[in-house]
Amino acid sequence: xxxxxTILNLDDNAPTFEQQSVTRVVQEDTEVNAAIVARxxxxxxxxxxxxxxxxxxxxxxxxxxxxxxxxxNNPEIYLQKALDYDKINSTTLLLYARDSLxxxxxxxxxxxxxINIIIQQVDTRAPWFxxxxxxHSDRSVCISSPYSGTVNISEMATEPLILTxxxxxxxxxxxxxxxxxxxxxxxxxxxxxxxxxxxTGNLTMTKIVTSPDSFLLQVMATQVNNARKYSTxxxxxxxxxxxxxxxxxxxxxxxxxxxxxxxxxxxxxQAGDPSTPLMITxxxxxxPDV
Length: 290
Hints:
Blueprint: E1 21-27, E2 35-37, H1 39-42, E3 53-58, E4 67-71, E5 74-79, E6 90-98, E7 110-120, E8 128-129, E9 132-135, E10 138-144, E11 147-152, E12 170-171, E13 181-187, E14 194-196, E15 203-205, E16 215-223, E17 226-240, E18 248-249, E19 256-257, E20 269-270, E21 273-277, E22 282-283
Parallel strand pairs: 1-7, 11-17
Antiparallel strand pairs: 2-5, 3-6, 4-5, 6-7, 8-12, 9-10, 13-16, 14-15, 16-17, 18-22, 19-20, 20-21
Keywords: Calcium, Membrane, Repeat
Protein name: CDHR5 protein
Subcellular location: Membrane
């Protein structure tokens, strides 16, 4: 008597990943759709030879949508949205492998792999002159104000010029790289009156100025490692007469009179003389004709 016995495969094995934890360093400027983790690294096996279904989730708030898998049966992870280091510098993904498409199926087995993604900042931005203010909520653009200062006519300043809103200074906004910045004057330096220290940004005089004409310098900040990464700023230097004395009021106390019920912008009159508007005047011994 020949007896044929068929062994039925019981679904009693869970899928398994060869690597349960994977770490990848991803450059900030990685192109969208680029593969991040290869399929063969994340493919799970199942001793029951079941079809395996994959699902990818993120555990870090605000990092959803950047990474995805190719398909429900293809666990290759690719970049789905452009990266910005200021918005996301790391995330942790969970890849689930199931032997049933329906989680309610009984029995249903699941394996989990953890994928740690570290975003590496790259040199994408030109220097920012300081101080600067961000453009609304966009922290990729920082707007600086022009610099300004003064020099005295026919007088040679021996120390670096004092400027507002601060000294000439720029930073590399790719702060984890923090490339060195060098400075130069690229325009407006008539007769080469001024000199700019390439390393410190200090602005000094090389000769005296004999005319009251102002200077509008164009200053450039350049990254040492890449001359194409540069920014420019303006520095206005006004030439003035030397001031040795502060202004002073002609009187220590001024007394005036107003009347109840006067309209807005009405004159205040001198106390005791309701026909003469009150005048508050000052003098400056440096400018007797002003």
